[in-house]
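Hey, can you fold this one?
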Amino acid sequence: MMKPIQIGLLGFGTVGTGVARMLTENADVIQARVGASLNLKFIADIEIKKDRGLPIDPNILTTDASMVVDDPEIDIIIEMIGGEGIAKEFILQAIDNGKHVVTANKALLAKHGNKIFKKAGEKGVDVAYEASVGGCMPIIKTIRESLVGNRIQSIAGILNGTCNYILSKITDDGSMFETALADAQTKGYAEADPTLDVEGFDTAHKLAILTALGYGMAINYDDIYIEGISKITPLDIEFAAQFGYRIKLLAISKFKARGVEARIHPTMIPFDNILSNVNGTLNAVTITGDAVGDILLSGHGAGMMPTASAVISDVVDLARNLMTGISGRVPMLACQMDRVRQVPVIPVEELLTHYYFRFSALDKPGVLSKISGILGKYEISLKSVHQKGRKTNGTVPVVMFTHRAREADVKKALLEIESLDVVGEKPVLIRIEDEKNLE
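Sure. Predicted structure:
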């Protein structure tokens, strides 16, 4: 039996507590599978007096995270602080000290991952981050290892449990967005300030990481198109259902000859798409590879123990590397660092897809011809037109589905239609992903 592998944990919040729980309560299981004991030498947090419900030796608790990072006996640093500030400094400090790092910090990796991975490669250490995307789903391990022989063609999924819960609530109960959000906050699924989740930024952090892994490219968060769910109404969810669709906040990336699509937005998907039936706080991702076709991963994307499970998976991988004296066995960004490329993200204006429009139109002759005339001017071909629902304040909802159209043309047409005096409120646009209807 080799000597214990020493671990320093930075951050003793919800997930940090889950990590400590697994390292202590499941120590025998882990040791049997690894062949060495994983010893939690220090836990650093600004609050060390609070009772976490764990029998933790108070002597391993400290408020001095820098001391933990500089401890020469510690082999692996687990960063559970979050954010892009001090967490980044401690990770870089740990790398400088020749320590391996485990993190769940998707925002940090999406913004600064290229720098962090480069430095780790130069120092001969690994940065593991399975828990940064999809909680307990082994999405990163799947792309980096299980699908290593595939050319990844597309990645699409539900990557934010808060948004999925809210949309499920609106769908099932007919709640307005604000009501569904308040319910999610009451149940602890949404933060007091939910902006990061509901406006799509959290999902974009995760897609930036997956897109880099899938296509052998540097992480590029800045060019991802991001649109959240705060404008989704029960009316649009009801209309979508009448035509066989559900609305989900999807992360979508596709590899194209001229670059990569990478976009976050509410999306209509047909009932027979397996993602349409992923409800509540669950996450799910489909990956398409040239050899495997479509595969699906699903699981809890957040929460103390699901996320801790992914963290421990990374810790064990690094422990096994330490036991055999290796690092870099699996490249941090899936490709060897000298083969990671700068691949352009295609601007959303160039997107070709199907669209759902909803207009509040005055109930009078000639209105539809005015709207369809403008759409025709921008070469937007209509698949179907429906007048749905009752008259409200003199207007009726008009729903249109298009054939494939270019995003830039759609935006110009809707701006022009919005200025018509026969149209009430701002037109609604929702993109559609439906392989059966692509032409």
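The first helix runs from residue 14 to 25. Let me know if you want another pass with a different chain boundary.
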